[in-house]
Amino acid sequence: MLDFDVAQAQLVQAGNPIQHIEDVPLHQARGRILARSLDAHLDMPPADNSAMDGYAIRFADYEPGRGLPVQQRCFAGEQPQPLHAGHSIRLFTGSVIPEGADTVVMQEDCTETDNVLFINEKPSIGQNIRRRGEDIHKDSVLLPAGVRIGAAQIALLASQGYNRVPVFARLKIGVLTTGDELIEPGKPLQAAQIYNSNGPMLAALVEGLGADAVHVLHAPDTLEATEKALATLIADCDLVLSVGGVSVGEKDLVKPAIEQAGGKLDMWRVRMKPGKPVALAHAQGKPIVCLPGNPVSAFAVFALLVAPLVRKMQGREQWLPPVEHARLDAQAPFNDTRDEFIRVRAAHGQNGETRLSVFDRQGSGVVSSLPWSDGLARIPAGQKFGPGDLVPYYSWAHWLV
Ligand code: AMP
Ligand code: MG
Q: How far away, in angstroms, is 174 Cα from ligand 2 center?
């Protein structure tokens, strides 16, 4: 059996970063991966400006009780006049600092009578001024290649005047579900059938990472149908995910279908629960990852093993999200051979630490554990873990984005 961390590191090697770059409007860049590092066009802020509503003065003009006539009122977007000696200029947060001024006194510390400023608190030189370039220097790296663009990155790019961004083409992923017992949601359920939950689930997981689920195909348990669906997926996608039909049961047709497509299936027995049977193949240069059929296993294996590969293929800089450590609130199941990844819910305990409660049914068919949970706690094999013990915690918030 393969150790979980080894399997995770090896699976990332199964694919390469996408090369194709597109130029998209900024407002369509959310969720995409930046393809080139972008430099700052401008100093930010572009000029010294006021951090407060108040008055610009020369510090040297200040004396207790002295009046400084207000020379100008300078609103946002207006260019101030040079400040005359012995005067002040009324300004507002973000106003450009007038030439000759070196200090801003905030309005709460002042009285203005008949256009003359009186300062009630002794100022200090340079106060309340945001300096040109203190946030960003022109020509410095604004964002490195490989970041996923969200609202924060869009704000930064917009503040620099970018209206288009180079991003990697969306990674195309195809999903194949298998099984005679499965029927699509929306159709009436016949005896001995279950609804296909893995198809919609995997499509949503793929889209959550910012990749495209270009096909979600279902094949009943015949070699012909499985081969046909696989051929479409391999032709149209960068990465193929199949789910179910890959153990050694009589109706496990994914292996022969992949061989028919020219691939060789490498069966991995990973020392993890859920999800021991995971398989990898390449056909026509495209990686195919075969996931276990139980929805909970497929979900966990996707998050822990497939998502890092997807991130790498998307061109991201970070493939493995952070693993936190958190304290269990309850007894964990004991497993003497495999690391167990159990569904947990996180809450804030004392001292701001994260406490994990454990779902009461950890079977790999228990789909209700998924929406209940915030992530997976890892219970290393061969050790007993109970209330108060610190364990690695893989939160969906990091691992599914
Ligand atoms: P298999 O590996 O094909 O034997 O599947 C293992 C278990 O997962 C079986 O109980 C299947 O019914 C179930 N399963 C497989 N694929 C799906 C699916 N797409 N949706 C829901 N359950 C599935
Ligand atoms: Mg099956």
A: 18
